């Protein structure tokens, strides 16, 4: 009897000990403001699915510096009000979130000042309020990859290439069909400046949300007869643009898509109307990357994958989600190098994002060569990439083919507009720009 | 002038598509006095079910028949479980029931299938007709979408069929009696529940046809529910109780929103006015004819 009690007591102590170990296991909490229903669900499920699949891969390997990621989702339906509500509901959970990535210009812009007050990094991969590139004025706002101005200057440079040189843009007409939202409008003034610089004319044509009826807009295009149409769409607006272009007799090869009009989910629904469509991209589609193969084997093999439809593995949105997962977790890892392998605070994570450097060697170590571009963020540049390629859709083979090398944006023109916008924002909001040292790795702002 | 004609014709053809959506509202309203808030979601459910089956290699015709049966059964179930228990309740209660039905079906459609954007090709050509090439004698340099013409013909045929059905069949006569006065219709032996079931089933079929045409035109996704927003100003103009009204209303809205967007947008300081311009047009009509062009005037004894 005594032995049995001893055994039971030992077992209890062992269990308590184990549970204390389990509860002592450090975690970092990431809110996931996803959109899995509603008009933009195709983008939301792909992007957030890719992020969660990458997080699961890292957790299966022991986490980041031994610290695992935990998360909870909140449905925003791409609505600014819901996104802000999700932020307020989740930011203090599990000891506090480390950053917030809503995949929405509207939501991320609405949270710029709240993020500043809460010392919470607001992340907008490949998009966002462009003036936010200036980290001295927007310390908690990050847009890793390319910004809107990079994107559009690269698109204009690509058109210049198609025309045989930038000098041949003189006299050309470029129309921009844009989504009726803050995201869509972000590029209008820049495109005016870009065309002023290169002698082309620019016409911006708004498509009201959600963009499932575009006949009027394409009639305008037919009347003004532009040489090229830039598609700055999102969600269902993209396939409808291609279908309507076909109905109106506009050659789809002269319809050039932006970074949010470049996915499989945009072209497949358009069927044959999308054949020959070209779009900018920071990352290719496909599954021929070691990290993607690892996710398929270790995450989906273990039944923990996020996508219900496995045919979407390797799609542009999902791959962008994996890319975003790499960006998020590398920022955390870099912050841990500075602060130690432990759970981080949101302001410490901010330091990680601001000092995020992804070299070719590091990308190779991550198994993401060819998928993730090199990045180099610093205090004055919260974007850090500024490069993109172009891809063309082959409807018969149902695949994207890369058709250009890396093209750099017009940094000189972008910077002057970004500086003006950021400084005006600072003046309007009584923000004193913080000093950015030459080597921002020494910057200890707000820790 | 040629461009004006092109905008006008394009608008009129779009208008037929709007009429198709509006007719679903009219049928339910005529029979029960209820504005069916779930119309757009029924349209989404039908199109999503059809396209999801064809993507899984189900034959086109079989997928169509299965979806057709499903929509008819859905209509009957809605009548049995939602409308019938609320018979003789206030119209607001019935309307709120359709609001609930809308959100239920919205979740069901996306839960059973998914929330992705699906392409749907019915085999109708998407290439435009260049009138100057096809009919040089006209001297008009305009294009007309083959798809829009085909869709208008299909929609027009269905509208004509429905009009004849409800004008010349016993069921149609019963429906008209029910729409005039529920109590009087029941007093002369017209089975209200059976009429409601037929109307909801026919509405399900209309949703399928409209869903397929809209799905081919703009792809199948959650935003198909927004097609309903195009139907509302149509019934405001045409009247909630008239099928011919839905047709005329659709043509007016289609033409006015396209012409408004092209020629008047600048007056309002920008673009993207067509989604509210349609409602402005409807409001102007309502100020002149509060019951719509073909709506029935309500005269009550005091």
Report what the structure shows.
The complex is a heterodimer of chains A (447) and B (302). Chain A starts with a helix and ends in a 19-residue tail after the last helix. In chain A, strands 5, 6, 7, 8, 9, 12, 13 and 14 form an 8-stranded mixed sheet that branches. In chain A, strands 1-2 form a two-stranded parallel ribbon. Chain A contains 16 helices and 14 strands. The radius of gyration of chain A is 23 Å and the shape is globular. In chain A, 55% of the residues are buried. Chain A has 447 residues and is α/β, with parallel strands linked by helices. In chain A, strand 8, helix 11 and strand 9 (278-281) form a beta-alpha-beta unit. Chain A has 2 domains: 26-146 and 286-378 and 419-442, Response regulator (Rossmann fold); 149-281 and 388-409, Rossmann fold, CATH 3.40.50. In chain A, 43% of the residues lie in helices and 13% in strands. Chain B has 302 residues and is an all-alpha fold. Chain B has one domain (2-288): ABC transporter involved in vitamin B12 uptake, BtuC (Orthogonal Bundle), CATH 1.10.3470. Chain B contains 12 helices and 2 strands; from the N terminus they run H-H-H-H-E-H-E-H-H-H-H-H-H-H. A two-stranded antiparallel ribbon of chain B has the order 1-2. In chain B, helix 1 (2-32) packs across helix 7 and helix 2 (39-55) packs antiparallel against helix 3 (60-83). Chain B is globular. Chain A binds chain B through residues 36-39, 41-42, 45, 180, 205-208, 210-213, 215-217, 219-220, 222-223, 235-236, 239-240, 243, 246-249, 265-266, 268-273, 308-309, and chain B through 3, 6-7, 10-11, 14, 107, 110, 114-121, 126-128, 130, 143, 145, 147-148, 217-224, 226-227, 230, 257-258, 261-262, 270-272, 274-275.
